[in-house]
Amino acid sequence: MSLPIRTLGPQESRVVLALREMAHTETTRTEIASLLGGTLKAADHVIESLRRKGWLERAAWGKYLLIPPEQGPDVLGNSNLLALASHVLQPYYFGFATAAAHYGLTTQARNVIYVVALEERRERRVHDSRVFTVKQTAKKFFGFSEVDVLGYKVMMSDREKTSIDCIDHPAFAGGVGESATILATAARRYDWDKTMDYIDRIGAGALARRFGWLCDYVKAEMPLSVRARLEVIARKSRKTWLGAPPERKIPDAIGYDEAWRVLVNVPRAELRGSAGLGQRKTIKRSI
After folding, report:
1. Is 231 within 8 Å of 203 (Cβ atoms)?
2. Alpha helices for the chain (secondary structure H)
């Protein structure tokens, strides 16, 4: 099956070439009208044509993404989902399973894009993906920065904050087992001081206990100085649980850990794949 070819008429070329010359990856209805030197109504006709031909993708009302020539001559109907989802609301950052996938911390493929924000928004769809907004408190709304995703700049939590968020809310990571895998993979490249600064800033003893237990379980190579700081924060909570609430009886759950005072109410099978996964692998050289 042959795909339609992306072509450009004179007015369309004027818009695309101008946006490329200015290194713009996004544009607006008003900017396109200005580039054409015409009215908004005239711009709408060119925008409609550029969208039909695969050069523009609508991100929000009056806002569009430019699909660059590097994506090839064919009208593929597939654009940067994160760039589109970034227009849902401001301020925001992509986190949880979405950020974990960006950094290669998980191999699970999902059709949900997690946008973290200070307010709630109804779920919406971008092509075949669901965009789910996770409302975060102002105290936890940090640990993210601008990253490049296929030529577009979006806000993304860093490795350390991604793994902490996933432990704090495992449901948005694929469950406790997947959160443990994300932590184990991230910990191999951790900035441990930054991680502890984040946990200290959140200041939740229960989170510190869960984080400590999971680090031990995956055998993350945590420095002793970091462990000492973590234990101080953990004392803010007498005890806590990981997984289902204590009143729910989970078959073959791991049970209570005295060291971190955590009831691990998670089936052993769910965490089996992450056991010891945080250890750095060394390659033995043959002599």
Report:
1. no
2. 10-21, 29-36, 40-52, 81-85, 96-102, 159-168, 176-187, 192-202, 205-218, 224-234, 268-271
198: which residues sit within 8 A by CB, 6+ positions away? 142, 143, 160, 161, 164
The one-letter amino acid code at 115 reads V
- Whole-model pTM? 0.76
Is residue 230 within 8 A of residue 164, CB to CB? The reply is: no
* Strand-strand pairing, 129-135 and 63-66: unpaired
Q: Residue ranges of the domains in the chain?
A: 10-79, 81-157, 159-287
CB 79 within 8 A of CB 67: yes
d(CA 176, CA 182): 10
Distance in angstroms (rounded) separating the CA atoms of residues 186 and 181 = 8
Q: Is 183 helix (H, G, I), strand (E, B) or coil?
A: helix
Q: Nearest 5°: CA angle at 87, between 170 and 59?
A: 125
Write the pLDDT tens digit of every residue in 77-92: 444 788 888 888 889 9
26-50 pLDDT tens trace: 889 999 999 999 889 889 988 888 8
Tell the CATH topology of 10-79.
Arc Repressor Mutant, subunit A (1.10.10)
Tokens 């800033």 belong to: 201
